[in-house]
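Anyone else keep sequences and C-alpha coordinates together like this?

Example one:
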Amino acid sequence: MDFVSLLIGWLSDAAHWAGSDGVPVRVLEHLEYTVISLLIAVVIGFPLGALVGHTGRGGLLLVGAANGLRALPTLGVLTIVVLLAGIGVVPAIAGLVLLAVPPVMAGTYAGIRAVEPIVVDAARGVGMREWKVLASVEVPNAMPLIFGGVRSAALQVVATATVAAYVGLGGLGRYVFDGLAIRDYAQVASGALVVAVLAVVVDLVFIGLQRLVVSPGLAPAKSGKASA
Protein backbone atom coordinates (compact mmCIF):
# COMPACT_ATOMS: atom_id res chain seq x y z
CA MET A 1 0.00 0.00 0.00
CA ASP A 2 1.48 3.38 -1.03
CA PHE A 3 1.83 6.36 1.28
CA VAL A 4 -1.10 8.31 -0.22
CA SER A 5 -3.40 5.38 0.43
CA LEU A 6 -2.20 5.22 4.03
CA LEU A 7 -2.84 8.94 4.41
CA ILE A 8 -6.35 8.67 2.98
CA GLY A 9 -6.98 5.63 5.13
CA TRP A 10 -6.00 7.46 8.31
CA LEU A 11 -8.10 10.53 7.51
CA SER A 12 -11.14 8.47 6.48
CA ASP A 13 -11.08 6.40 9.66
CA ALA A 14 -14.05 7.54 11.78
CA ALA A 15 -12.15 6.63 14.96
CA HIS A 16 -9.75 9.50 14.31
CA TRP A 17 -12.61 12.02 14.25
CA ALA A 18 -14.28 11.10 17.53
CA GLY A 19 -13.42 11.26 21.22
CA SER A 20 -11.01 13.45 23.16
CA ASP A 21 -8.20 12.58 20.72
CA GLY A 22 -10.27 13.21 17.61
CA VAL A 23 -9.39 15.74 14.93
CA PRO A 24 -12.17 18.23 15.84
CA VAL A 25 -11.00 18.38 19.47
CA ARG A 26 -7.36 18.76 18.44
CA VAL A 27 -8.29 21.55 16.00
CA LEU A 28 -10.13 23.44 18.75
CA GLU A 29 -7.14 23.04 21.08
CA HIS A 30 -4.84 24.26 18.32
CA LEU A 31 -7.05 27.31 17.72
CA GLU A 32 -7.19 28.01 21.45
CA TYR A 33 -3.40 28.26 21.69
CA THR A 34 -3.37 30.39 18.53
CA VAL A 35 -6.01 32.86 19.70
CA ILE A 36 -4.48 33.28 23.17
CA SER A 37 -0.99 33.82 21.75
CA LEU A 38 -2.21 36.22 19.08
CA LEU A 39 -4.22 38.32 21.54
CA ILE A 40 -1.23 38.64 23.88
CA ALA A 41 1.02 39.52 20.93
CA VAL A 42 -1.40 42.25 19.80
CA VAL A 43 -1.60 43.67 23.33
CA ILE A 44 2.21 43.86 23.41
CA GLY A 45 3.13 44.62 19.81
CA PHE A 46 0.41 47.06 18.74
CA PRO A 47 1.00 49.76 21.41
CA LEU A 48 4.78 49.56 20.97
CA GLY A 49 4.57 49.81 17.19
CA ALA A 50 2.00 52.62 17.34
CA LEU A 51 3.97 54.65 19.90
CA VAL A 52 7.28 54.38 18.07
CA GLY A 53 5.62 54.97 14.72
CA HIS A 54 3.85 58.08 15.98
CA THR A 55 6.83 59.67 17.73
CA GLY A 56 9.44 58.51 15.23
CA ARG A 57 11.77 57.77 18.13
CA GLY A 58 13.34 54.38 18.64
CA GLY A 59 12.53 53.09 15.17
CA LEU A 60 15.92 51.46 14.67
CA LEU A 61 15.72 49.89 18.11
CA LEU A 62 12.23 48.53 17.43
CA VAL A 63 13.20 47.10 14.05
CA GLY A 64 16.30 45.52 15.58
CA ALA A 65 14.27 44.04 18.41
CA ALA A 66 11.72 42.66 15.96
CA ASN A 67 14.43 41.05 13.84
CA GLY A 68 16.07 39.66 16.97
CA LEU A 69 12.83 38.07 18.16
CA ARG A 70 12.26 36.58 14.72
CA ALA A 71 15.69 34.97 14.88
CA LEU A 72 14.88 33.16 18.13
CA PRO A 73 14.11 29.46 17.56
CA THR A 74 10.64 28.74 18.97
CA LEU A 75 11.58 25.26 20.13
CA GLY A 76 14.68 26.60 21.88
CA VAL A 77 12.67 29.28 23.66
CA LEU A 78 10.09 26.67 24.61
CA THR A 79 12.77 24.44 26.12
CA ILE A 80 14.26 27.30 28.16
CA VAL A 81 10.86 28.37 29.51
CA VAL A 82 10.06 24.76 30.40
CA LEU A 83 13.27 24.59 32.42
CA LEU A 84 12.36 27.84 34.20
CA ALA A 85 8.59 27.49 34.63
CA GLY A 86 7.97 23.77 34.27
CA ILE A 87 5.78 21.87 31.84
CA GLY A 88 2.44 23.48 31.07
CA VAL A 89 0.60 25.93 28.88
CA VAL A 90 2.84 28.89 29.85
CA PRO A 91 5.95 27.72 27.95
CA ALA A 92 3.96 27.00 24.80
CA ILE A 93 2.17 30.33 24.85
CA ALA A 94 5.42 32.18 25.64
CA GLY A 95 7.16 30.67 22.62
CA LEU A 96 4.24 31.46 20.31
CA VAL A 97 3.91 35.03 21.62
CA LEU A 98 7.59 35.68 20.89
CA LEU A 99 6.94 34.46 17.37
CA ALA A 100 3.84 36.63 16.89
CA VAL A 101 4.99 39.93 18.41
CA PRO A 102 7.50 40.94 15.66
CA PRO A 103 5.08 40.96 12.68
CA VAL A 104 2.39 42.74 14.73
CA MET A 105 4.87 45.33 15.98
CA ALA A 106 6.56 45.82 12.61
CA GLY A 107 3.26 46.04 10.71
CA THR A 108 1.90 48.65 13.12
CA TYR A 109 5.10 50.69 13.01
CA ALA A 110 5.32 50.58 9.22
CA GLY A 111 1.64 51.47 8.86
CA ILE A 112 1.85 54.49 11.14
CA ARG A 113 5.03 55.77 9.49
CA ALA A 114 3.45 55.36 6.04
CA VAL A 115 0.60 57.78 6.78
CA GLU A 116 0.97 60.95 4.71
CA PRO A 117 2.58 63.70 6.84
CA ILE A 118 0.20 66.27 5.35
CA VAL A 119 -2.75 64.36 6.80
CA VAL A 120 -1.14 64.27 10.26
CA ASP A 121 -0.22 67.95 10.07
CA ALA A 122 -3.79 68.84 9.10
CA ALA A 123 -5.12 66.96 12.14
CA ARG A 124 -2.73 68.83 14.39
CA GLY A 125 -3.66 72.07 12.69
CA VAL A 126 -7.31 71.74 13.73
CA GLY A 127 -6.24 71.32 17.35
CA MET A 128 -6.20 67.55 17.82
CA ARG A 129 -4.14 66.28 20.74
CA GLU A 130 -1.36 63.80 19.94
CA TRP A 131 -3.27 60.78 21.26
CA LYS A 132 -6.28 61.84 19.17
CA VAL A 133 -4.12 62.19 16.07
CA LEU A 134 -2.81 58.66 16.63
CA ALA A 135 -6.19 57.08 17.39
CA SER A 136 -8.38 58.96 14.91
CA VAL A 137 -6.05 59.64 12.00
CA GLU A 138 -2.92 57.51 11.94
CA VAL A 139 -4.31 54.15 13.09
CA PRO A 140 -7.32 54.18 10.70
CA ASN A 141 -5.09 55.10 7.77
CA ALA A 142 -2.52 52.48 8.78
CA MET A 143 -5.08 49.65 9.06
CA PRO A 144 -4.03 47.78 5.86
CA LEU A 145 -0.47 47.31 7.12
CA ILE A 146 -1.55 46.78 10.73
CA PHE A 147 -3.99 44.09 9.69
CA GLY A 148 -1.36 42.59 7.41
CA GLY A 149 1.00 42.24 10.37
CA VAL A 150 -1.67 40.56 12.50
CA ARG A 151 -2.58 38.25 9.64
CA SER A 152 1.07 37.27 9.15
CA ALA A 153 1.41 36.62 12.88
CA ALA A 154 -1.72 34.46 12.91
CA LEU A 155 -0.44 32.27 10.07
CA GLN A 156 2.95 31.83 11.73
CA VAL A 157 1.36 30.90 15.04
CA VAL A 158 -1.05 28.41 13.44
CA ALA A 159 1.82 26.75 11.64
CA THR A 160 4.03 26.66 14.74
CA ALA A 161 1.47 25.82 17.45
CA THR A 162 2.31 22.17 16.93
CA VAL A 163 5.16 22.74 19.41
CA ALA A 164 2.57 22.80 22.20
CA ALA A 165 2.55 19.01 22.02
CA TYR A 166 6.29 19.06 22.78
CA VAL A 167 5.46 20.02 26.38
CA GLY A 168 2.60 17.58 26.78
CA LEU A 169 -0.27 19.79 25.62
CA GLY A 170 -2.86 19.05 22.96
CA GLY A 171 -3.44 20.49 19.52
CA LEU A 172 -2.62 19.06 16.13
CA GLY A 173 1.00 18.66 17.16
CA ARG A 174 -0.07 15.56 19.09
CA TYR A 175 -0.45 13.71 15.81
CA VAL A 176 3.02 14.76 14.70
CA PHE A 177 4.90 13.99 17.93
CA ASP A 178 2.91 10.87 18.83
CA GLY A 179 3.14 9.61 15.27
CA LEU A 180 6.90 10.06 15.23
CA ALA A 181 7.20 8.25 18.57
CA ILE A 182 5.51 5.12 17.19
CA ARG A 183 6.70 5.58 13.59
CA ASP A 184 3.16 6.03 12.34
CA TYR A 185 4.05 8.29 9.43
CA ALA A 186 0.50 8.32 8.09
CA GLN A 187 -0.55 9.95 11.35
CA VAL A 188 2.34 12.41 11.14
CA ALA A 189 1.46 13.39 7.57
CA SER A 190 -2.23 13.63 8.40
CA GLY A 191 -1.51 15.97 11.29
CA ALA A 192 0.70 18.13 9.10
CA LEU A 193 -1.95 18.20 6.37
CA VAL A 194 -4.68 19.28 8.79
CA VAL A 195 -2.39 22.07 10.07
CA ALA A 196 -1.86 23.25 6.48
CA VAL A 197 -5.59 23.21 5.75
CA LEU A 198 -6.28 25.07 9.01
CA ALA A 199 -3.72 27.72 8.06
CA VAL A 200 -5.47 28.25 4.71
CA VAL A 201 -8.85 28.56 6.44
CA VAL A 202 -7.45 31.06 8.97
CA ASP A 203 -5.92 33.07 6.13
CA LEU A 204 -9.27 33.19 4.30
CA VAL A 205 -10.99 34.31 7.51
CA PHE A 206 -8.50 37.14 7.92
CA ILE A 207 -8.96 38.17 4.29
CA GLY A 208 -12.70 38.42 4.93
CA LEU A 209 -12.19 40.33 8.17
CA GLN A 210 -9.80 42.73 6.47
CA ARG A 211 -12.42 43.57 3.86
CA LEU A 212 -14.87 44.35 6.65
CA VAL A 213 -12.48 46.33 8.86
CA VAL A 214 -10.34 48.23 6.35
CA SER A 215 -11.98 51.07 4.46
CA PRO A 216 -12.18 50.36 0.69
CA GLY A 217 -10.50 53.72 0.10
CA LEU A 218 -7.40 52.43 1.92
CA ALA A 219 -7.17 49.15 0.02
CA PRO A 220 -4.33 48.92 -2.51
CA ALA A 221 -5.46 49.73 -6.01
CA LYS A 222 -5.81 46.81 -8.36
CA SER A 223 -3.14 46.62 -11.02
CA GLY A 224 -3.89 46.55 -14.70
CA LYS A 225 -6.26 49.53 -14.75
CA ALA A 226 -5.17 52.37 -16.96
CA SER A 227 -5.73 55.86 -15.72
CA ALA A 228 -8.32 57.90 -17.56
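And example two:
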Amino acid sequence: MANPNTLSDRAAMGLPDTFVPRGASPWPLRAHGDLLGARADTLVAVAEDPVQSFARRYAAGTVLGLVGDPRIRPDDPPMADVPAATVRLGLDPSEVEAVTARWRHVGVEADWIAKECPVYEVSLPAFRIARHPVTNAEYRLFLEATGSTALPTSWTFGVWQEGRGNHPVWTVAPEAADAYAAWLAARTGRRFRLPTEAEWEYAASGGDGRDFPWGEEFLPGHANTAEHGPLTTTPIGIHPAGRSPFGVHDMAGNVEEYTADAYSPYPGGTAVADDLAVRRGSYRIARGGSFTRFGDLARCRRRHGWYARDIYAMGFRLAETP
Protein backbone atom coordinates (compact mmCIF):
# COMPACT_ATOMS: atom_id res chain seq x y z
CA MET A 1 0.00 0.00 0.00
CA ALA A 2 1.15 3.55 -0.71
CA ASN A 3 1.46 6.16 2.03
CA PRO A 4 -2.14 6.33 3.38
CA ASN A 5 -1.99 10.12 3.44
CA THR A 6 -1.82 10.12 -0.38
CA LEU A 7 -4.92 7.93 -0.75
CA SER A 8 -8.65 8.42 -0.37
CA ASP A 9 -10.05 7.50 3.04
CA ARG A 10 -11.53 4.23 1.78
CA ALA A 11 -8.35 3.26 -0.05
CA ALA A 12 -6.28 4.06 3.05
CA MET A 13 -8.54 1.68 4.99
CA GLY A 14 -7.96 -1.02 2.40
CA LEU A 15 -11.55 -0.86 1.16
CA PRO A 16 -12.78 -1.13 -2.44
CA ASP A 17 -15.34 1.24 -3.92
CA THR A 18 -18.05 -1.39 -3.41
CA PHE A 19 -19.86 -1.98 -0.11
CA VAL A 20 -17.96 -4.12 2.41
CA PRO A 21 -20.12 -5.82 5.07
CA ARG A 22 -18.49 -5.91 8.48
CA GLY A 23 -19.45 -6.69 12.06
CA ALA A 24 -22.84 -8.02 13.01
CA SER A 25 -25.75 -8.42 10.62
CA PRO A 26 -27.95 -5.40 9.78
CA TRP A 27 -29.95 -6.47 12.86
CA PRO A 28 -27.33 -7.02 15.57
CA LEU A 29 -29.88 -7.85 18.27
CA ARG A 30 -31.88 -10.42 16.28
CA ALA A 31 -29.84 -13.39 17.50
CA HIS A 32 -29.47 -11.98 21.01
CA GLY A 33 -33.00 -10.94 21.89
CA ASP A 34 -32.60 -12.36 25.39
CA LEU A 35 -30.33 -9.40 26.17
CA LEU A 36 -33.15 -6.90 25.66
CA GLY A 37 -34.64 -7.72 29.05
CA ALA A 38 -31.35 -8.17 30.91
CA ARG A 39 -30.24 -6.03 33.84
CA ALA A 40 -27.56 -3.45 33.14
CA ASP A 41 -25.00 -5.24 35.30
CA THR A 42 -25.64 -8.46 33.38
CA LEU A 43 -25.15 -6.63 30.11
CA VAL A 44 -21.83 -5.20 31.31
CA ALA A 45 -20.70 -8.68 32.33
CA VAL A 46 -21.52 -10.01 28.86
CA ALA A 47 -19.91 -7.05 27.09
CA GLU A 48 -16.64 -7.52 28.99
CA ASP A 49 -16.51 -11.34 28.93
CA PRO A 50 -13.78 -12.56 26.54
CA VAL A 51 -15.46 -15.97 26.36
CA GLN A 52 -18.52 -14.47 24.64
CA SER A 53 -18.52 -14.02 20.87
CA PHE A 54 -17.85 -10.56 19.48
CA ALA A 55 -21.39 -10.43 18.10
CA ARG A 56 -22.85 -11.06 21.56
CA ARG A 57 -20.54 -8.56 23.26
CA TYR A 58 -21.45 -6.00 20.60
CA ALA A 59 -25.16 -6.72 21.13
CA ALA A 60 -24.80 -6.26 24.90
CA GLY A 61 -22.99 -2.97 24.39
CA THR A 62 -25.65 -1.85 21.92
CA VAL A 63 -28.44 -2.49 24.44
CA LEU A 64 -26.45 -0.59 27.07
CA GLY A 65 -26.26 2.31 24.63
CA LEU A 66 -30.05 2.38 24.54
CA VAL A 67 -30.97 1.75 28.19
CA GLY A 68 -28.02 3.45 29.92
CA ASP A 69 -24.51 2.20 30.60
CA PRO A 70 -23.60 2.15 34.32
CA ARG A 71 -19.90 2.31 33.45
CA ILE A 72 -20.43 5.90 32.34
CA ARG A 73 -20.21 8.09 35.44
CA PRO A 74 -19.35 11.57 34.17
CA ASP A 75 -18.40 13.05 37.55
CA ASP A 76 -16.67 9.90 38.80
CA PRO A 77 -15.24 8.06 35.79
CA PRO A 78 -13.87 4.58 36.52
CA MET A 79 -10.10 4.93 36.93
CA ALA A 80 -7.20 2.50 37.15
CA ASP A 81 -4.39 3.13 39.61
CA VAL A 82 -0.95 3.09 38.00
CA PRO A 83 1.92 2.81 40.51
CA ALA A 84 5.02 4.98 40.51
CA ALA A 85 7.87 3.43 38.56
CA THR A 86 11.05 4.07 36.66
CA VAL A 87 10.38 2.66 33.22
CA ARG A 88 12.15 2.30 29.90
CA LEU A 89 10.04 3.52 27.00
CA GLY A 90 10.58 4.03 23.29
CA LEU A 91 12.22 1.89 20.63
CA ASP A 92 15.84 0.93 19.93
CA PRO A 93 16.93 2.41 16.58
CA SER A 94 18.11 -1.04 15.47
CA GLU A 95 14.46 -2.17 15.39
CA VAL A 96 13.11 0.53 13.05
CA GLU A 97 13.76 -1.43 9.86
CA ALA A 98 12.10 -4.60 11.19
CA VAL A 99 9.02 -2.77 12.48
CA THR A 100 8.66 -0.86 9.21
CA ALA A 101 8.95 -4.07 7.19
CA ARG A 102 6.34 -5.80 9.36
CA TRP A 103 3.78 -3.09 8.56
CA ARG A 104 4.85 -2.00 5.09
CA HIS A 105 1.78 -3.72 3.60
CA VAL A 106 -0.38 -0.97 5.15
CA GLY A 107 1.84 1.87 3.98
CA VAL A 108 4.00 2.41 7.06
CA GLU A 109 7.15 4.45 6.43
CA ALA A 110 10.41 4.35 8.36
CA ASP A 111 10.15 8.00 9.47
CA TRP A 112 6.94 7.24 11.34
CA ILE A 113 8.64 4.51 13.34
CA ALA A 114 11.86 6.49 13.84
CA LYS A 115 9.87 8.96 15.98
CA GLU A 116 9.70 6.22 18.63
CA CYS A 117 13.50 6.25 19.09
CA PRO A 118 15.57 6.01 21.16
CA VAL A 119 14.81 4.01 24.28
CA TYR A 120 14.85 6.34 27.26
CA GLU A 121 14.29 6.02 30.99
CA VAL A 122 11.80 8.10 32.94
CA SER A 123 10.63 8.10 36.54
CA LEU A 124 6.87 8.53 36.80
CA PRO A 125 4.97 9.27 40.00
CA ALA A 126 1.78 7.33 40.68
CA PHE A 127 -1.21 8.46 38.65
CA ARG A 128 -4.64 7.27 37.64
CA ILE A 129 -5.92 6.70 34.12
CA ALA A 130 -9.50 6.29 32.92
CA ARG A 131 -10.53 2.73 32.18
CA HIS A 132 -12.38 3.93 29.07
CA PRO A 133 -12.01 6.78 26.60
CA VAL A 134 -14.37 9.73 27.09
CA THR A 135 -17.73 8.84 25.59
CA ASN A 136 -20.32 10.71 23.57
CA ALA A 137 -22.60 10.88 26.62
CA GLU A 138 -19.90 12.49 28.76
CA TYR A 139 -18.93 14.94 26.05
CA ARG A 140 -22.58 15.88 25.53
CA LEU A 141 -22.81 16.86 29.21
CA PHE A 142 -19.77 19.11 28.72
CA LEU A 143 -21.35 20.78 25.69
CA GLU A 144 -24.63 21.34 27.51
CA ALA A 145 -22.95 22.73 30.62
CA THR A 146 -20.51 25.06 28.88
CA GLY A 147 -22.20 26.09 25.65
CA SER A 148 -19.00 25.16 23.82
CA THR A 149 -19.12 25.19 20.02
CA ALA A 150 -16.54 22.37 19.82
CA LEU A 151 -19.00 19.90 18.30
CA PRO A 152 -17.53 16.55 17.21
CA THR A 153 -17.39 16.35 13.45
CA SER A 154 -18.49 12.71 13.77
CA TRP A 155 -21.91 13.95 14.96
CA THR A 156 -23.43 14.59 11.53
CA PHE A 157 -24.59 18.23 11.40
CA GLY A 158 -23.56 18.42 15.07
CA VAL A 159 -26.59 16.34 16.02
CA TRP A 160 -26.60 13.87 18.93
CA GLN A 161 -25.94 10.24 17.97
CA GLU A 162 -28.90 8.34 19.42
CA GLY A 163 -27.91 4.99 20.91
CA ARG A 164 -24.19 5.80 20.85
CA GLY A 165 -23.82 7.40 24.23
CA ASN A 166 -21.43 4.63 25.29
CA HIS A 167 -19.21 4.94 22.20
CA PRO A 168 -16.01 7.03 22.38
CA VAL A 169 -16.44 10.60 21.21
CA TRP A 170 -14.62 11.54 17.97
CA THR A 171 -13.43 13.68 16.18
CA VAL A 172 -12.56 16.61 18.41
CA ALA A 173 -9.60 18.98 18.45
CA PRO A 174 -6.93 18.66 21.16
CA GLU A 175 -7.99 22.01 22.61
CA ALA A 176 -11.49 20.61 23.13
CA ALA A 177 -10.04 17.60 24.95
CA ASP A 178 -8.06 19.96 27.19
CA ALA A 179 -11.18 22.03 27.81
CA TYR A 180 -13.18 18.95 28.78
CA ALA A 181 -10.54 17.87 31.30
CA ALA A 182 -10.32 21.38 32.78
CA TRP A 183 -14.12 21.63 33.01
CA LEU A 184 -14.44 18.29 34.78
CA ALA A 185 -11.62 19.17 37.16
CA ALA A 186 -13.36 22.44 38.09
CA ARG A 187 -16.72 20.68 38.39
CA THR A 188 -15.48 17.89 40.67
CA GLY A 189 -12.53 19.44 42.48
CA ARG A 190 -10.34 16.58 41.23
CA ARG A 191 -7.13 16.96 39.23
CA PHE A 192 -8.27 15.57 35.91
CA ARG A 193 -6.10 16.18 32.84
CA LEU A 194 -4.87 14.40 29.74
CA PRO A 195 -2.11 11.83 30.26
CA THR A 196 1.42 12.63 29.22
CA GLU A 197 2.90 10.54 26.43
CA ALA A 198 5.04 8.63 28.90
CA GLU A 199 2.09 7.95 31.21
CA TRP A 200 -0.01 6.73 28.30
CA GLU A 201 2.68 4.31 27.06
CA TYR A 202 3.33 2.99 30.57
CA ALA A 203 -0.40 2.47 31.20
CA ALA A 204 -0.78 0.68 27.86
CA SER A 205 2.25 -1.58 28.09
CA GLY A 206 2.74 -2.05 31.81
CA GLY A 207 6.29 -0.79 31.31
CA ASP A 208 7.68 -4.12 30.09
CA GLY A 209 8.27 -3.06 26.48
CA ARG A 210 5.51 -5.18 24.94
CA ASP A 211 4.33 -4.19 21.49
CA PHE A 212 0.58 -4.27 22.25
CA PRO A 213 -1.38 -4.01 25.50
CA TRP A 214 -1.95 -7.79 25.46
CA GLY A 215 1.50 -8.94 24.32
CA GLU A 216 3.92 -9.08 21.41
CA GLU A 217 1.76 -10.23 18.50
CA PHE A 218 -1.03 -8.27 16.86
CA LEU A 219 -4.32 -10.13 17.34
CA PRO A 220 -7.14 -8.53 15.31
CA GLY A 221 -9.94 -9.70 17.61
CA HIS A 222 -8.35 -7.89 20.56
CA ALA A 223 -9.01 -4.37 19.28
CA ASN A 224 -11.36 -2.38 17.06
CA THR A 225 -9.09 -1.74 14.09
CA ALA A 226 -9.59 -1.82 10.32
CA GLU A 227 -8.43 -5.46 10.11
CA HIS A 228 -11.33 -6.90 12.10
CA GLY A 229 -13.73 -4.29 13.39
CA PRO A 230 -17.06 -3.05 12.05
CA LEU A 231 -15.50 0.10 10.50
CA THR A 232 -17.18 2.32 13.06
CA THR A 233 -16.76 2.97 16.76
CA THR A 234 -17.91 0.26 19.15
CA PRO A 235 -19.27 0.51 22.70
CA ILE A 236 -16.54 0.90 25.30
CA GLY A 237 -14.96 -2.22 26.73
CA ILE A 238 -16.24 -4.87 24.32
CA HIS A 239 -12.71 -6.03 23.42
CA PRO A 240 -11.80 -7.35 26.90
CA ALA A 241 -8.96 -9.56 25.67
CA GLY A 242 -7.19 -6.37 24.61
CA ARG A 243 -7.08 -4.78 28.06
CA SER A 244 -3.75 -3.37 29.23
CA PRO A 245 -1.86 -4.89 32.18
CA PHE A 246 -3.61 -2.33 34.42
CA GLY A 247 -7.07 -3.38 33.22
CA VAL A 248 -7.58 -0.39 30.91
CA HIS A 249 -9.85 -0.86 27.89
CA ASP A 250 -9.53 0.28 24.25
CA MET A 251 -5.94 1.51 24.36
CA ALA A 252 -5.16 -0.27 21.09
CA GLY A 253 -8.19 0.63 19.00
CA ASN A 254 -11.62 2.25 18.70
CA VAL A 255 -10.40 5.89 18.58
CA GLU A 256 -7.01 7.56 18.66
CA GLU A 257 -6.28 9.39 21.92
CA TYR A 258 -4.66 12.77 22.42
CA THR A 259 -1.99 13.12 25.07
CA ALA A 260 -0.93 16.29 26.84
CA ASP A 261 2.29 16.61 24.84
CA ALA A 262 3.18 18.19 21.53
CA TYR A 263 5.64 16.30 19.37
CA SER A 264 9.31 16.63 20.23
CA PRO A 265 12.14 14.11 19.96
CA TYR A 266 12.81 11.84 22.91
CA PRO A 267 15.93 12.52 25.05
CA GLY A 268 18.95 11.75 22.90
CA GLY A 269 16.85 11.59 19.74
CA THR A 270 16.56 13.83 16.69
CA ALA A 271 13.47 15.52 15.29
CA VAL A 272 11.76 13.66 12.45
CA ALA A 273 10.27 15.83 9.69
CA ASP A 274 7.68 13.32 8.52
CA ASP A 275 4.51 14.25 6.65
CA LEU A 276 2.72 15.27 9.86
CA ALA A 277 5.48 17.70 10.78
CA VAL A 278 5.63 19.10 7.24
CA ARG A 279 1.85 19.48 6.97
CA ARG A 280 1.03 20.71 10.48
CA GLY A 281 4.23 22.01 12.00
CA SER A 282 3.71 21.64 15.72
CA TYR A 283 1.13 18.98 16.55
CA ARG A 284 -0.30 17.18 19.54
CA ILE A 285 0.80 13.58 19.96
CA ALA A 286 -1.94 10.96 19.85
CA ARG A 287 -1.63 7.32 20.88
CA GLY A 288 -3.54 4.10 20.28
CA GLY A 289 -5.17 2.80 17.12
CA SER A 290 -8.66 3.37 15.77
CA PHE A 291 -11.45 1.70 13.84
CA THR A 292 -10.24 3.45 10.67
CA ARG A 293 -6.59 2.39 10.91
CA PHE A 294 -4.55 -0.81 10.87
CA GLY A 295 -2.76 -2.55 13.72
CA ASP A 296 0.49 -0.62 13.28
CA LEU A 297 -1.18 2.36 14.93
CA ALA A 298 -2.27 0.17 17.85
CA ARG A 299 1.31 -0.47 18.98
CA CYS A 300 2.02 0.88 22.46
CA ARG A 301 5.06 2.86 21.27
CA ARG A 302 3.49 4.42 18.16
CA ARG A 303 3.52 8.22 18.07
CA HIS A 304 1.16 9.97 15.67
CA GLY A 305 -1.17 12.94 15.40
CA TRP A 306 -4.15 14.53 13.67
CA TYR A 307 -4.75 15.49 10.07
CA ALA A 308 -8.08 17.17 9.37
CA ARG A 309 -9.48 14.10 7.61
CA ASP A 310 -12.33 11.79 8.53
CA ILE A 311 -9.98 8.81 8.68
CA TYR A 312 -8.29 10.40 11.69
CA ALA A 313 -10.71 9.35 14.44
CA MET A 314 -9.42 11.50 17.29
CA GLY A 315 -10.68 11.00 20.83
CA PHE A 316 -9.14 11.13 24.29
CA ARG A 317 -9.14 9.66 27.77
CA LEU A 318 -8.53 11.24 31.13
CA ALA A 319 -5.71 10.93 33.60
CA GLU A 320 -5.79 12.12 37.19
CA THR A 321 -3.12 13.26 39.59
CA PRO A 322 -3.85 11.60 42.97
